[in-house]
Amino acid sequence: MNFIHGIIIYVFIINVCVVARGLHEGHGHAERTAHHGAHGRHMSASHAHYTYHPPRYIAFTCRHCTSAEIYPVYRLTPPAYVYAYKDSGSRYRDILTGLSLYNLGRAAHIGWFHTHQYTVRPEERCSLQVIEKAHFEEFEFPCFMISSFIETGGKKPSNKTRLVDIASSQINVKPFIRDTGPPLEVTKDQECVLWHNLTTQKERNHVPCALLKEYANTVKPAGVPVYIWLPTLLGTVIAVYLCCECFCKNKEKEVVKEEAPLNELRVPGYCASY
Ligand SMILES: *[C@@H]1O[C@H](CO)[C@@H](O)[C@H](O)[C@H]1NC(C)=O
Ligand SMILES: *[C@@H]1O[C@H](CO)[C@@H](O)[C@H](O)[C@H]1NC(C)=O
Fold it and tell me: What transmembrane ranges does the database entry give (predicted)?
């Protein structure tokens, strides 16, 4: 492959990438307008910062367990509030993101049809307590986020209740993003206690905080797009290849030049004389 060939291939790759970029942006635009129509611009902006990489399952070994347990994963595109939490400057951004995804995963696993509609009660309040030996903190969150944990208790929804689809992109969680600051450092020893408080009854669930962090880690910052890194990478590879080729050709010539004097040095009997 000579220099001209290299240039032609590189130009071809650039073209492919530009086409790919066009397709990508076209798609992105369609998505953006759809989101804009639904609930304003700010929600979809967070999609640009983060991408969801659902693993097949999450294997987690709790503090006092001997082996890992398998936890269900939500495999569809997460609703906007998941990204809103991750992108928020909240101290609890990881716990809130993780709890949302854990609940969605559980709901999908238990039977989506029955679990994705959550009945909101006017008097209910939910909070999460982070508990460690000498450490305690608590914050409130919307109860639909633990829909898969809450026992319905056979109560018929009254006319005051309202249904929320936990996968809806129109849920606004802004009122629950309060405690801004550096993220809470999640450790293996922390226990996250989920409270669902009604006026007459209280329900409690325990989850290792580190498990919620595992769920939160499946939402990753969006990397450099393919249409930028691919041509750069291929360009570098071709450049290195061409440089090597030139360098090796020069080396060969040098070697040929040096062959004669080197051979002359190797006089038989030179070694034998020692
Ligand atoms: C729910 O009840 C528990 C136990 O009484 C309490 O510690 C927690 O702060 C309550 N949460 C809310 C949001 O009222
Ligand atoms: C809801 O139910 C209450 C009684 O529990 C009744 O007084 C009220 O009119 C109802 N509201 C609507 C909108 O149906």
Answer: 226-244
Residue-range domain boundaries for the chain: 1-40+224-251, 47-221
Which atom, in ligand 1's list, is nearest to the CA of 197? 1
Flag residues of the chain having pLDDT under 50.
22-46, 267-274
Instruction: Give φ, ψ of 163 to 5 degrees.
Output: -95, 140
Q: Report how far residue 83's alpha carbon sits from residue 51's, in angstroms, rounded to the nearest whole number.
A: 9
| Paired tokens of 37 | 């129509």
pLDDT for residue 34: 36
Candidates 150, 176, 197: which one to mutate for ligand 1, based on the most atoms within 8 Å of Cβ?
A: 197
pTM to 2 decimals?
A: 0.67
Quick one: which ligand is closest to 161's CA?
2
Tell me the three state secondary structure of residue 106: helix
**Pocket residues: Cβ below 6 A from ligand 1:** 125, 127, 138, 140, 195, 197, 202
Selection from 39, 184, 36, 164 nearest residue 97 by Cα? 184
User: Would you give the distance in Å from CA 5 to the centre of its chain?
Assistant: 39
Contact 106, 212 (CB under 8 A): no
Task: Tell me how far apart the alpha carbons of residues 266 and 274 are, in angstroms, rounded to a whole number.
Answer: 14
The pLDDT assigned to 25 comes to 42
Structure tokens that stand for 93 in this block: 């951004």
